[in-house]
Design the sequence.
């Protein structure tokens, strides 16, 4: 059964390999690293890339924290309040904002959580937010995720795809954040599925990130764009900010539990914008994208 | 005793007079108006100004809505769940984002709330967010508010100033949003204070807005600024976005109760920005401002 040390060490190696792949595809930007510690226990390795050829601002974060189980979790899990109960959580979180509006924004998180009472689970998600939706790219992205999921369980992709549609949704805009992806949580071991098998699935998803996103960078990074495209990018980034600050559970949890603000908010773009009641022109590329920001689209 | 009709009609006239004053001082920008209705009852008159000489994006909003009392309010007020209980709420909300970083952002809200059981109250607030704090301006702003408060009750300004320090605060940044102002809520009638007197106080605060802010526009609008100043403005606007989306109760309430999104989020600037772990240079104007974004500063 993989130990927390083994899982943690793998997350670190994932951070390393993803940073290397992104630097290579970017061709100019280099990650800088900030190591931080958490007063209550543990810490992280925050790696940030800014002003590359392709990536305007992005982060690939590793963290591993531990301490007494927060009160909201004992409530949520119907646990007796037990002051001796401790938790350990480790994971990798990524958000990449490209400068060229034709290159999509991407996010991934893979995480492991365990408590001193023996309860553990894995969780994660990956979703794509194109400023302009390219059907071929969305299909490639979803097919890659489906392929990764199918190696483990053919029920995963449909289940986790729907979960992502519901999670990466902005109710006050009645829009999805992008073309979705997969989202999953509380994957624990059962009589039929070992912890080892769960960890293998997490590795599969983690390892899918770099080849898929560098391919999407590569396909789109040399595309030309206009001032109008940049304006639209600002507005789409505004929506990204709205989702992250109003709805994203990781952000909320981090800010409420006195997490490291600069690491949590690395997900925000270098610039974002809001225009009052902006409506794209009929028949424009912006309108086509908006019409595809809906739940339940089958991309595979 | 002023009726809801009388109070509502005054709020509308306040919106009119503030829009006229702002247009005059701006010299170019004109408000456009959107009238909207709320399915559950009532509606609003949203007035937006964009791309003026001084104001880049701003809104002066009137609304008057009514319906069954929302569940969270019966809980908060320890009322018995009573399906027949209805509410009526009216008010004016303002946020102005100037283009010149030397002109401060301003916000004001004045509101009236009543329920069919006879309970009523007034609330509101006004606060200033300079990108660069000018001590003389902050003193002028606070002295103007103190003067308005003192006409009604000499305990108001110290009490409401502290309330604003606590309310307009960004815990995850350990920064106030700006130089504060006043904030107050649930001002109802007592044996000693009539509803009429409360309404007079609300009028006083509402009427303070235009002369104070147009003066601040006037003092600063012709100041020159650099690219560095514009960059800093973007980051300060980023903080404004963080406050409004994460903490502001009006925004939260509006988004959660299916309010009109474009009216609620008119408070967001046309552009905002985030840089990872940005720290101003030692001894710079940006650092001086940051050092003053603290609670408890006495500006009068």
Sequence:
């Amino acid at each position: 059964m993989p130990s927390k040390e083994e899982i943690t060490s793998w997350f670190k190696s994932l951070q390393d390999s993803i940073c290397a792949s992104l630097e290579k595809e970017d061709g100019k930007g280099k990650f800088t690293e900030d190591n931080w510690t958490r007063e209550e226990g543990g810490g992280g390795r925050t790696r940030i890339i800014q002003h590359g050829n392709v990536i305007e601002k992005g982060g690939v974060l590793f963290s591993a924290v531990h301490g007494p189980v927060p009160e909201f979790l004992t409530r949520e899990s119907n646990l007796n309040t037990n002051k001796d109960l401790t938790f350990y959580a480790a994971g990798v979180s990524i958000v990449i904002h490209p400068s060229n509006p034709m290159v999509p924004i991407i996010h991934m998180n893979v995480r492991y959580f365990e408590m001193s009472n023996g309860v553990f689970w894995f969780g994660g998600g990956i979703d794509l937010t194109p400023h302009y939706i390219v059907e071929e790219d969305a299909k490639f992205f979803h097919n890659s995720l489906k392929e990764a999921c199918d190696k483990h369980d053919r029920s995963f992709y449909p289940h986790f795809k729907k979960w992502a549609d519901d999670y990466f949704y902005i109710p006050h805009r009645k829009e999805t954040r992008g073309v979705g992806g997969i989202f999953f949580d509380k994957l624990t071991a059962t009589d039929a599925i070992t912890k080892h098998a769960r960890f293998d699935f997490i590795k599969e998803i983690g390892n899918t990130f770099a080849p898929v996103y560098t391919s999407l960078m590569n396909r789109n990074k040399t595309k030309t764009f206009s001032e109008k495209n940049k304006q639209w990018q600002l507005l789409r980034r505004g929506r990204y900010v709205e989702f992250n600050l109003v709805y994203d559970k990781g952000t909320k949890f981090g800010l409420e539990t006195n997490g490291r603000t600069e690491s949590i908010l690395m997900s925000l773009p270098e610039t974002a914008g809001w225009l009052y009641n902006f409506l794209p022109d009929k028949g424009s590329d912006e309108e086509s994208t908006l019409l595809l920001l809906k739940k339940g689209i089958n991309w595979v």
User: Anything to note?
Assistant: The mean pLDDT of chain A is 96. Chain A has nine helices and ten strands. The interface with chain B takes residues 34, 48, 50, 57, 59, 171-173, 234, 238, 241-242, 245-246, 255, 261-262, 264-266, 268-277 of chain A (CB under 8 Å).
